[in-house]
Specification:
86% helix, mainly alpha, 319 residues, 9 helices
C-alpha cells in the first residue's frame, strides 16, 4: 500500500463515520445505501402491483368486454327506437352524447362486471409490504450506525438514532399517504376511460350514419349504425379491456417514479439527522486523542518502512 493511500485512509478515519466507507475503502454513505435499497423495494412494489392488477382484474375485464359486445347491437337498436328522429340525429352528430350518453350505456355491462373486484382491490392496502420493507432498511441502517459507535458513545448514539428513527417513521407515513391518495385519483381517472374509448372507436360509425340524407334517411341511419356496431363490437370492447389494463400498468410505473423521488428525499433526511453523530464524535476529546494516537503510530511505522526501503535500494545499487 502506498504512503499516499495510507494517508488518505487515515484522513478518512479521522473525519468520517465508519459507515462512510466499506471494507475496500469505497465511499458508500447513508443516502446511497438507502437509495439503492429503496429503489429495489420500489421496483418490487411496482411489479407486485402490476401482477395484482392482472390477477384481480384482467379476467373480469375480458368477461365484461364479452358481455358488452354481446348486448351492444340490441342496445343500439333499442336506443334508436326510443327517441324522436331529431333527437337521434342530434345524438349521432354529438357522437353519442346528447341528453343520454350512448357510450356510457354501452360500457355498462363491462363496468358492472368489474365493479366488485375493482372496489375490493383499491380498498385494500396496496403499499403495506413496501412500507414494511422500507422500515426494515431504515432500522438496519440505524442498527449499523449504533454498532459502529465507540463504547463511550453508545448511549449518545442510541439517543440520536432513536430521534432519527422516529423522524423517518413520520416522514415515511406521510409519503405512503400521499402515494395512496395519488393512486386513488389515478384509479378514478382510469375507471372513467372506457366511455371515451368507446366514443372514439365509434366516431366513424356516427359520422357514416349522419351521411344519410333525404326521404327515409332515419331508417337508413339506424341501419348503418346497427351494421357498424355489429361489425366492430368485439374490437371496440376488447380494445377497451386492453386500454384499461394498460392504464393500470402505467399507473403502477408512475407511482413507482413518485415513490423513488419521495424516498430519495427521505434517505437524505435520514442522513442529515444522523450527521449530528459524525460532528459530535469529532468533538469528544477521548475519541480525538485515540485517533491522533493511531495516526501518529501508523505514521512512525510508515517512516520506518521508508527508511528500510531506501536502505534496501542503496544496498541493491551497491551490489
Amino acid at each position: 500500500m502506498s504512503r499516499e493511500l495510507m494517508d488518505a485512509r487515515l484522513f478518512s478515519m479521522n473525519n468520517q463515520s465508519s459507515l462512510k466507507v466499506n471494507a475496500r475503502g469505497e465511499p458508500i454513505g447513508v443516502t446511497p445505501r438507502l437509495v439503492k435499497e429503496f429503489c429495489a423495494h420500489v421496483e418490487k412494489c411496482v411489479s407486485d402491483l402490476q401482477d395484482l392488477f392482472r390477477d384481480g382484474l384482467e379476467e373480469k375485464c375480458q368477461v365484461g368486454a364479452a358481455n358488452a359486445a354481446e348486448g351492444a347491437v340490441q342496445h343500439v337498436d333499442e336506443f334508436a327506437g326510443s327517441m324522436h328522429w331529431a333527437t337521434y340525429r342530434a345524438t349521432l352528430r354529438r357522437h353519442g352524447t346528447w341528453r343520454r350518453d350512448l357510450n356510457v350505456e354501452l360500457v355498462t355491462p363491462f363496468t358492472r362486471n368489474i365493479a366488485s373486484s375493482w372496489s375490493t382491490l383499491f380498498e385494500s392496502d396496496l403499499f403495506a409490504s413496501l412500507s414494511d420493507a422500507i422500515t426494515t432498511s431504515i432500522n438496519k441502517l440505524i442498527t449499523d450506525v449504533e454498532a459502529s459507535a465507540a463504547a463511550g458513545l453508545k448511549d449518545h448514539v442510541h439517543a440520536q438514532s432513536s430521534v432519527s428513527q422516529e423522524e423517518a417513521r413520520h416522514a415515511l407515513g406521510q409519503t405512503m399517504e400521499v402515494v395512496k391518495e395519488a393512486l386513488g385519483k389515478e384509479q378514478k381517472e382510469i375507471s372513467r376511460c372506457l366511455a371515451p374509448h368507446v366514443q372514439n372507436e365509434l366516431t366513424d360509425g356516427y359520422n357514416l350514419a349522419l351521411e344519410e340524407r333525404g326521404q327515409g334517411s332515419v331508417a337508413r341511419q339506424k341501419a348503418v349504425f346497427h351494421n357498424y356496431i355489429h361489425g366492430r363490437k368485439h374490437d371496440v370492447f376488447n380494445g377497451g379491456a386492453e386500454v384499461l389494463m394498460g392504464r393500470l400498468s402505467t399507473a403502477a410505473e408512475t407511482i413507482g417514479k413518485a415513490l423513488n423521488e419521495s424516498l430519495r428525499k427521505l434517505a437524505e433526511k435520514i442522513e442529515v439527522s444522523l450527521a449530528v453523530l459524525w460532528e459530535d464524535t469529532r468533538d469528544v476529546p477521548d475519541q480525538v486523542r485515540a485517533r491522533l494516537q493511531t495516526i501518529q503510530s501508523v505514521s512512525k511505522l510508515l517512516d520506518q518502512l521508508d527508511m528500510w526501503s531506501k536502505a534496501a535500494e542503496k544496498a541493491s545499487a551497491a551490489s
